[in-house]
Design goal:
With 221 residues, the protein is of the alpha+beta class. The chain has 5 helices and 14 strands. The strands form 4 sheets. Strands 1, 2, 3, 4, 5, 6, 9 and 10 form an 8-stranded antiparallel β-sheet that branches. A two-stranded antiparallel ribbon has the order 7-8. The longest helix is centred in the last third of the chain and has 19 residues. It is globular and about 70 Å long.
Length: 221
């Protein structure tokens, strides 16, 4: 079936794309405003876009025509923390997704302890297996009350028991027990059943195809 994306209404279009582009990682963002008030909120329109430089991008929309607390805080203060969500933290994450007023501390409502970050102002969530300290670099206005916030990762906190080789940056990803976002309506997925598919070098592929072609041609004769 062919969907004319430009012709679709906003909600059906979001439903379709959010169901097709899955699974999506979850950025559980902790930030603070200029007065030091903390905020925590999850975003699934998020990913790493570059390793060098180490760039992450968040897609954040407005709420009732006003910037969400996370976007406003990031732009005002210039830094934020992306905490990753494990299965054991899923319910607490869901509490922080409630549309509280800006004077409510989502972390306190969810019963989440925090730890001071190494270099940025906002704290990290203590029980999160991974926390990425980030500095805000720029934003890209998309229209329709949405923007992309671009940040650079400057420090990464990782649970000791998932580290395989710190010098090579190797991590036991399955052991982090992270969750990702699926289609709408509160659907999620786990990352505990990974599998490995070895990348094929170009030389190896060409040799295989050449060998296969020779065998085929020989059988025809």
């Amino acid at each position: 079936m062919l969907f004319d994306i430009a012709a679709m209404a906003a909600k059906p279009r979001y439903n379709l794309l959010a169901s097709l582009i899955v699974p999506r990682p979850i950025a559980w963002v902790t930030s603070s405003d200029a007065r030091g008030r903390l905020n925590a909120a999850p975003f699934s329109l998020f990913n790493m876009m570059s390793g060098t430089p180490p760039v992450v991008v968040l897609g954040i929309g407005n709420r009732a025509g006003r910037p969400k607390d996370s976007a406003r805080n990031i732009i005002e203060t210039g830094d934020f923390v992306i905490n990753l969500v494990s299965e054991e933290l899923l319910e607490a994450m869901n509490v922080t997704a409630i549309e509280f007023t800006e004077d409510i501390d989502e972390l306190a409502e969810a019963g989440l302890a925090t730890i001071p970050s190494h270099a940025v102002g906002p704290p990290r969530i203590a029980r999160s297996p991974v926390a990425l300290e980030c500095t805000y670099t720029r934003s890209v206005e998309l229209g329709q009350d949405r923007k992309l916030l671009i940040g650079e990762i400057i420090y990464a906190h990782v649970k000791d028991d998932v580290i395989l080789n710190p010098d090579r940056g190797h991590i036991d990803a399955a052991r982090m027990n992270l969750v990702g976002r699926m289609h709408g309506g509160g659907w999620y997925t786990t990352t505990t059943t990974p599998f490995r598919l070895t990348r094929i070098p170009a030389e190896g592929w060409c040799q295989t195809q050449s060998s296969s072609g020779n065998q085929d041609s020989g059988s025809l004769r």
